[in-house]
Specification:
25% strand; 16 helices; Rossmann fold; alpha+beta; binds adenosine monophosphate; 27% helix; 489 residues; 24 strands
């Protein structure tokens, strides 16, 4: 089975006096941009473990009454965004693995707890009732599958995340305690993972040795919060403490915080977090995402200064870059495109025609801003080219005289295997067309991408701190047999 592409958010809380489910709700709400397909929260009070998850936005899955019904002092929570094919509730997270005692009631013929599930926990030794949330993707799961098959666990319907939780739980049922079980399974995880695991008495965070997906720690009223992005901290009053290090295993329990390095770190944060994913008010590697995006625009102004009447961003990610570009060149900045914020997922609608309609439903130009003007329009990235083509067309239809399309990142030529939902390489426009060919396809007056060097310079960090696979085809974690899916030209 091909692992599912996922761009997700994880969130966790540990604190005796904290309303962990309510905090998780607000945490997920702040992380909604990382996934709109399903949402879920699991909590434990040490005696039972309860999960509620469902398809849709956080506000569609949860209400006040439901949030009030959760009990406990530990929580893990998740927002999921997946490819269309993987859009099923059985892949929603948190994923609960039943412990040996609960196995009497939760049968492995139905290994996917439905929307609501609650298991009683063993009062004796911990027997592997855990809940897990995962941001990232394992491009290859062969080693995990073998491990599970050796234990007669059928993996046929499992996602990569389900395999991880079942493998850890299986080790615990063999009598191994949680952190040892995680360490035993860690070498089998080939890919990108920022994981949170909740047992009856602890919250564990673990990150792949490259730290491809972000994960940060904060303090809150004597307790702890862990989130995919730092933007989840301010809305709940939590105070940023530090990032979880690549290859780190962090355990929070009654005795406090314990950390150990379980793999030699080789830090390679995915630069696409700066380009597209992260919210502008988050900080990654100590840098403000907003500032870095602004620098992308400043850099492009140096590389490609244009004479124009107005600079407009494609909302929302490209706003900061367009501001940087316009300010550097003393050009007028306007919000010439309006975004309907309530439309999601045009990017992944499987049918191309529907996707094109989707762009129109999502973005509309303001004719008064562009009529008779030489327009510079800024987007953060071009993936398939569908959105950009529609935007150029709409701007000309709205009366623009020239439409210069500027992109605040280099051409995306390679698919992602670490948890970003990108199409196959053949569907990436920059993988099959040259820049002049793309310009013609878009129908733009000119088209310019930020240079690779310019993108790195704009972060203020060295190139070796990043995974740049979408742009360079360099995959810092071996993608094994998936390498057959890409070509260099
Ligand atoms: P496209 O029509 O495929 O070229 O779409 C490009 C647009 O999709 C840009 O405006 C990006 O902001 C956005 N985008 C880039 N990467 C992703 C992604 N992984 N998921 C959803 N949207 C994306």
């Amino acid at each position: 089975m091909q692992p599912l592409g996922e761009k997700c958010a994880v969130f966790g809380v540990y604190g005796k006096d904290l309303e962990v489910a309510r905090l998780s709700f607000f945490g997920l709400f702040a992380l909604q941009h990382r996934g709109q397909e399903s949402a879920g929260i699991a909590t434990t009070n040490g005696k039972t473990m309860t999960v509620h998850k469902g398809m849709g936005l956080v506000s569609q899955v949860f209400n006040d009454e439901l949030i009030g019904s959760f009990k406990g002092h530990i929580a893990v929570a998740h927002n999921r965004y997946s490819t269309a094919g993987g859009s099923k509730v059985k892949h929603a997270q948190p994923m609960l693995a039943a412990g040996a005692s609960a196995l009497k009631t939760v049968s492995y013929e139905d290994p996917h707890p439905s929307l609501n599930d609650s298991v009683s926990l063993s009062s004796g030794p911990d027997d592997g009732a855990i809940a897990l949330v995962h941001n990232g993707n394992l491009p290859t799961t062969a080693a995990l599958e073998q491990f599970l098959r050796e234990r007669s666990i059928d993996t046929a319907e499992f996602s990569d995340s389900r395999m991880i939780v079942e493998a850890i739980a299986a080790r615990m049922r063999e009598g191994v305690e949680l952190t040892t079980a995680i360490k035993d399974v860690y070498p089998l995880l080939q890919g990108a993972f920022s994981l949170l695991i909740m047992s009856r008495d602890s919250l564990v965070a673990v990150r792949d040795h490259c730290g491809i997906r972000p994960l940060s720690l904060a303090r809150l009223n004597g307790g702890w919060v862990i989130a995919s992005e730092t933007c989840a901290f301010a809305p709940i009053g939590a105070e940023y403490e530090r990032d979880i290090a690549p290859g780190e295993l962090l355990v929070i329990d009654e005795k406090g915080l314990h950390s150990e390095q379980v793999a030699e770190p080789n830090p390679k944060l995915d630069i696409f977090e700066f380009v597209y994913f992260a919210r502008p008010d988050s900080r990654l590697l100590g840098k403000s995402v907003y500032e870095v995006r602004r620098n992308f625009g400043v850099q492009l102004a140096k590389e490609y200064p244009l004479e124009a009447d107005v600079v407009i961003p494609v909302p929302e990610t490209a706003i900061a870059s367009a501001v940087g570009y316009a300010e550097t060149l003393g050009l007028r900045f306007e919000m010439g495109l309006t975004k309907n914020r309530y439309i999601h997922r045009t990017f992944i609608t499987p049918d191309q025609h529907v996707r094109e309609q989707g762009v129109k439903a999502k973005l509309t130009p303001i004719p008064e801003v562009v009529q008779g003007k030489r327009v510079v329009v800024f987007d953060d990235s071009i993936v398939r080219g569908t959105t950009s083509r529609q935007i150029v067309k709409m701007l000309f239809e709205a009366g623009a005289k020239e439409v210069h399309f500027l992109v605040a990142s280099p051409p995306v030529k390679f698919p992602d295997f670490y948890g970003i939902d990108t199409p196959q390489q053949k569907d990436l426009i920059a993988a099959t067309k040259s820049v002049p060919e793309m310009q013609e396809y878009l129908g733009a007056t000119s088209l310019r991408f930020l240079s690779y060097e310019g993108m790195i310079a704009a972060t203020g960090l060295p190139e070796n701190q990043f995974c740049t696979s979408c742009f360079s085809g360099v995959y810092p974690i071996d993608i094994k047999e998936r390498a057959q899916e890409i070509t260099f030209r």
